[in-house]
Amino acid sequence: MRFAIREFLAIGQEIRLVFNGNHYLPGLPELNGTVAWQKSAVGPAGTNSIDTGIFFSLLDPVTKNRIHEWLLKDGIVQREFAETDQFKDLGSAYDSSTATFQVLRAFGWGPLINLGYFRFPTPVSALNLLYNLVLLKTAYMLPSAQVRLVRKAFKLLEIQAGDDVLDIGCGRGLSSFLIASSHPTSSVIGIDLLPEHVNVATTLYGNIHNLKFEHGDALSLRFQNGSFGKVLCLEAAFHFADREKFLKEAFRILEQGGRLVVVDFAWKTDKDRQILKDEFTRFVQNEWKWSDFFSLGQYIKTAKSAGFKVEGFYKWSRRVTGPIQFIFDTFAKAGQWRWSRAALCRFNPLLHSLTDNHWATLHYSAKAHNHIRRHVEYIALVLKKPGEN
Dihedrals φ, ψ of 260, to 5°? Predict the structure, then answer.
């Protein structure tokens, strides 16, 4: 973090930030940091100050977010240095570095990294949880819902025998494998921006005759014009810095009459984008590495501008984000007390891997994700490139 102070400090010197008595961060302990650099600067109204960079090692994302908000609020940190690159480390959205991911992992997140399409929609989302508790399958709640989502998505592609299919943002390969297995006469290519995902996918599913995996960028596809009859992008486009460019690239590589199915998040209205400034929103952005969504209207308008004809538009929030948020909220609330955590761990022993800090972060994370969910629709958009193949 960058501070404007009035005294020189030695590089490497430890410094302590004290929050005692601060109304915005009640109960926050003192925070130790290290001076990283200093240089002279001119402050407001011509006053002299010393530009100082101080490094704080914060393992708790909740504390990090609260401090960041307070520093910006009181004008201590210059905003241009406080903001971080959302896409600096996309891989951290899909590893075990966040409490949210670790909880999802305890319920089967891993081979597939999507939110799942649940058996029971809102407002009866509790039945999804009860169904798994009765069958003692809490450690495997997500996989069946995740496979169901993949099948719902590629069913919209209407894959025919002999189709060449591209799975953009294939993750660890299971979605591409499901498509290739269900359509053995088709040829399937899965691409992902993260080399580690491509390596895992190739290891697990690389021996399938009609399936292969490659490293690839959705905004700069290496394929020639008209290379594919069907293209799927399942829960990946929200990471893209330029969705308009992605849609144009997808249009280019599709053959005439080809289909693109995009399953993504979208603001319900343009006004919902106003929450981008909120603390909860920034927390979720940092966890999942995204900067903005399209609104529903913007998605359709941009797709048409790229040349597509809109074949179908589906809102799946009641079967995707609604149910998983209910499950998320339930376990986050139950995790506030040690006795209830112990009960949860008896139902799902994988939860033993969570620390007290993880449970505290999870409670905050559930609130943050619910804040986003109220403003966002989970959609499936079916687009067709005009012409006959």
Answer: -120, 130
